[in-house]
Sequence to fold (482 residues):
Amino acid sequence: MSDETGSSQILESAVDIAWNVRNNITKAADVVERHLAEIERRDGEVHAFNLVLADEARERAAEIDDDVSVGRDPGPLAGVPVALKDNMCTRGIPTTCSSKILDGWKPPYDATIVGKLRDAGAVIIGKTNLDEFAMGSSTENSAFGATHNPHDLSRVPGGSSGGSAAAVAANFAPVSLGSDTGGSIRQPAALCGVVGVKPTYGAVSRLGLIAFASSLDQIGPMAHNVADAALVLETISGHDPMDSTSIQQGPLEISKELDWGVAGLRVGRITDLPEGASPDVNERLEVAYDELRSAGAEIVDVEVPAFTYGLTAYYLIAPAEASSNLARYDGVRFGSRTEAADTNAMYMATRTDGFGDEVKRRIMLGTYALSAGYYDAYYGRALKVRRRISADFAKAYEQVDVLLTPASPSVAFKMGDKTSDPMAMYLCDTYTIPSNLTGDPGMSVPFGTGESGLPVGVQVLAPALQESVMFRVAAELERRSA
Fold:
């Protein structure tokens, strides 16, 4: 990070923090204080957080230090501060989805991933800002104000997990969790110069993740480096009997293969990839192919014809699911209420006052796509396209082990540049959306810089449950990044 931003030059590794805390070399309390000091120093200008849990973090750190002092192992994430996207339920702690309609709401339970993090010794340090209900690509749609890119405060951090990406990039926390429905982890990770991972659908429990589009949403880590992301993903993955979409298998095993290299792996270059990436992003992608080839990988040209239809299918399927999921916010059961003359008027007033413009736009689009007379023409047809996309990716993976694409079409753009043009904003997710539709894993790894010295991310895609191979390629790119 450049000195011009005033950000810390010290990027603490989660792996190192946990090792030092578990071996009584470093106190968890000291780790927490360092990160809280950085948040205090700089989050006023970045606005990564909706809520900083300073007291709770200090209390948790003291518990971890007590465990170490009596010989108890706190776990693989001992003392590691973690920032949570503010759409993950935390018992008794406000969870807002950056929406007025949930302002101040305190869930009665923890998300499954929150329990897993705590069991592993992690310290929840705060709840991060996002595009309202995770709908956006710039974190400018938050009801509580936009988040800024720590590398250049005049630019966006990406979205919708922009707060989580910015928190890691600014060294407010070594790792964070985001949710990815159409690229909402990988695109902001690319723009902020951090690692961001969308796991296989069902590999991480969604219990306690406030739903946007249930067949697409997935929780994943963001981190300074590939090893930290692997450690966090291993911690939060695994079957959850309380989540009907959870895959019945144990936690993913990734870390042990990070140093295996890429010799003999087949890396796919998609020859019919949709156009739209800027020259600097394309240049870094070509360098990535060259570096992997020099490391022993075979570069194989493949076609994924339906890739180009991903954006169209997504913006029918995701809003349709959102219109159903967001129907529960009616001013009756929880959240805010706007009083009116009768119940129907109260419903209307509450939703009018509580939802922002982008959320309303997607609810209306989704409701229309599901309505009588239009269901088959729009939603039904989009589902057929989704199946075609899955088939095309499956065919490509018969020829290669992983695929490489840009993670974002460009480096971080200026605040306000795309807010008046929803379609321009939607195009930010061109390269990330298809893997949400297929359910396959994908991750963005920083790979040099582009325009104005801003970070560029290369996206690594892999077949379902092949995270270990995906991470091997990402680790090699990390070693060779410039």
